[in-house]
């Protein structure tokens, strides 16, 4: 009988140092389809470094990250087609409009999305009518909402999110939480860090870097 919750991402004995300081070692965990994982730990414990390792943007000092049992170094095309990473700072270009920023982000995934789908995503995140507004005219919260619209359009199985609640107001936080729940219910998985607390009415896995 097939596994009803197949393993998507596994780490094996990850080790990471920064400026000759050991951040974590012997870090192993598994994330299955439809699971949510929170990375915990104090400032400087390596949360962002871990997310960058998981997303393939940084090499671990030792250990491995595997996507569906294949090392991500040898499964790049498949992994990057199924994973989307959003860092702590919103990568919104000031001189591009909201719509153009969305298109640029989708281009990084070689995705072509119909105009009505983009408009629907912008409407859902509260940016209807902001299509032609440039990035420099958007507030910090609105810039973050552009990334939420991108998430809705990215068609990725795994979301890796560094401080996704940053700059969001109460409605924005509720929106982010509902998006994570919806993604989970559709079989997707999420890995995230946050200092603000995530009020998700579902069971979550945790990895505490202060213990690694």
Describe this structure in words.
By secondary structure, the chain is of the alpha/beta class. It has a single domain, classed as Rossmann fold (3-Layer(aba) Sandwich), CATH 3.40.50. The chain contains 6 helices and 9 strands, in the order βββαββαβαααβαββ. It has helices spanning 47-54, 76-82, 98-107, 115-124, 140-154, 170-185; strands at residues 7-18, 21-32, 36-40, 62-67, 70-71, 83-86, 158-162, 189-193, 205-208. Strands 6-7-8-3-9 form a 5-stranded parallel β-sheet, with helices on both faces. A 4-stranded antiparallel β-sheet has the order 2-1-4-5, covered by helices on one side. Strand 1 and strand 2 (21-32) form a beta hairpin. Helix 3 packs across helix 5 and helix 4 (115-124) packs across helix 5 (140-154). It is globular, with a radius of gyration of 17 Å. 33% of the residues are buried.
Secondary-structure blueprint:
Elements: E1 7-18, E2 21-32, E3 36-40, H1 47-54, E4 62-67, E5 70-71, H2 76-82, E6 83-86, H3 98-107, H4 115-124, H5 140-154, E7 158-162, H6 170-185, E8 189-193, E9 205-208
Parallel strand pairs: 3-8, 3-9, 6-7, 7-8
Antiparallel strand pairs: 1-2, 1-4, 4-5
